[in-house]
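In response to a reviewer's request, we include the raw inputs and outputs for one of the modeled complexes. The three entities were modeled together in a single run.
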Amino acid sequence: MIRRGLSLTEIIIALAIAVMVMVPVTSMFSTSGQQVQKSRNFSFAAGLARRISQHLMAMPFENIVEVPLPGLALHDSPDDVFFNPIVNFSASQSGVKKITASDMPALHDFLVQNDFKYALSVSNVSFGAGDEIKSISILITWKEAGRNMIYRTHVYVSSV
Amino acid sequence: MLTELRQPEAPRKGVAMVMVIGLVAIMMPIIFMLSRIGGSQTQLAVKYHENLVAETVAFSGSNAGLSRLQGNIRGYQDLPDETSGEDKFSLNLRPTGAGFFGQTMYFLLTRARIKTHNYIMMAEAEQFKPEPAPPVLVISRDYWNTVEPYEISLMADVLSMQNYRGMELLRLEETRTFERKSTEQQYKIEMSGKKSSLPAPLQTDWDAMVTALVSEKLSE
Amino acid sequence: MSRLFKHNRKRAAFTMIEIMVGATILAVIGGMVAHWFVMQRQYQSRILAISDAQQNIRQASWNMIQELRTARNLIYPRLNADKSIRSDTKTIFKNFAGDIVCYFHDAATGQIRRCLVPNGPGVPVVDKKPIGSGIDKVAFTAHDVGNRLIGIYLESSGTVGLESVYLLNE
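The model returned the following structure tokens for the whole complex.
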């Protein structure tokens, strides 16, 4: 009936149990961190899509054209109506800032890191005779932990 | 003999207890942290996202509704749900009378609902008679929105929305009347006089803003 | 003596060697756990900072977008004389009811405040609550000749939000 101390086997089993408990907890923790970053990217992508949708309302109807996949990068890109130039605190053209490493470092780094791009799929739809309307799918793509992500929204732009 | 049998068991139980308590003490804060980060923050992100999607879909739906008017749809229509991408919106067209040029006046109501988030847009639209054939001229104006969960197909709810919007329209009438009744000089003096009551960041450029306001003042 | 030692050994169940080995193993495990815990705390604070920043941007954006959407006219900023875009840390527009609304960034407190200026007799009133907080940088940018499109750039602890709003009403 007299028992000896804990055997090596018992200790190993106890440690194995502890590791088995800790590993999922650790992965849960990193998963929750990934969730926050995921939601940041997702939220940012939704903002980009909304921004494009608003600019589409203001641009000439005939200028709304297809931007095929894989799309255009937001950073280090030529001027477009949506993102470049992005701000200008001066009273003339000379002060415009674009999404480049020198002009907007924080935004540039974030975009480079996640490779955000946008694409537009444009088609004409008709709800009846005589109307002019463009149906536009706005696609935002980015890379997240080696995976290709996509956010899609849809807007109708009327010619009036 | 009894003592000899029981004594070795007690410390082992104690060690086991300490291990359990220790594990719980470590696990609880970790789980608490997890719930703080992974739970509420992500939920907020999703809620916000749903809000914005509801708005975008309603906005898009309103455009689609206007194009239907351009396509010569007339009279009261309880329009069926349309799909905008994967997200649904519903439209309701409510005639409010005829205009000076014989054009039909409508309230175009658009509603998008993403889970618990609602976004309703109400736009006034004037639809002119096609002469001699489509395209039909449609003028849309006075967009108004609410996040309240009204039913756009129910008369009582639409009246509530109109009343709510009406309060803001009464104020619009006041501000417009003030602009029309004032001379440029009177309007400039009134607006410039507010400069001293403004917070400091607004005071610096207020003169330029008043100039812009005066140049766009409504006149009788 | 030998009998006594034997008796005590049975009662304690652990030798000094066992305790020392156990303690060493526990210390190593404890050290690893503590290191992991510190690392996770640092990671957590980074994640929380991102999360807070994101929330700040979301709240500020939603509050402004809601009102701007049905606004009537963008008064300030406006395009430059050479038609280039123009940004400022404040924006002024006529809201749905025709009154003048100003949003301005207070860099010292990191807040975006809203001030309602009556378009008629009356004094300007600054809202008690800010419409955005924890915001480091703001740029309201005029993008079009018609004064209908305004870009909103928000930065909070390195997290950026890019929005634009098209003013629907005239």
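As requested, we also summarize the result in words. DSSP finds two helices and six strands in chain A. The mean pLDDT of chain A is 83.
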